[in-house]
Amino acid sequence: MQWVAIRFLEKKKPVKTQVPTIGRIVTFLNAEEECVPAIIIKVWNETCVDLQIFGKVVERRTSVIEGTGINTWSWPKY
To answer: Taking Cα atoms as reference points, which of 44, 37, 77, 75 lies closest to residue 59?
Structure first.
């Protein structure tokens, strides 16, 4: 019965529900602080991807990190 109490005391890690894959639509915060759509074209890991960005100019960016700052990508807000 002791193991039940121990399991409830363990801190649970947050579960990441979305995983980046090629073709997924994300948002990109550009230097003008505009949130523009982008498509994942290569996945390096769960937080680093290459993007095709559709802002005022269509461009490609490599090794873009997930985040909330300028020149980062994030999942679209619902």
So the answer is: 37
Residue with tokens 């100019």: 57
User: Is pLDDT at 65 greater than 60 in this prediction?
Assistant: yes
pLDDT digits 0-9 by tens, 43-62 = 999 999 999 999 999 999 99
Write down the pLDDT at residue 78: 77
CA distance 9 to 14: 15
User: Nearest 5 degrees, angle CA 53-CA 57-CA 60?
Assistant: 35
Measuring CA to CA, which residue among 78, 74, 77 is closest to residue 29? 74
Give yes or no for residue 75 having a pLDDT over 80. yes
Cα–Cα distances in Å, from 8 out to 1, 4, 15, 17?
12, 7, 17, 22
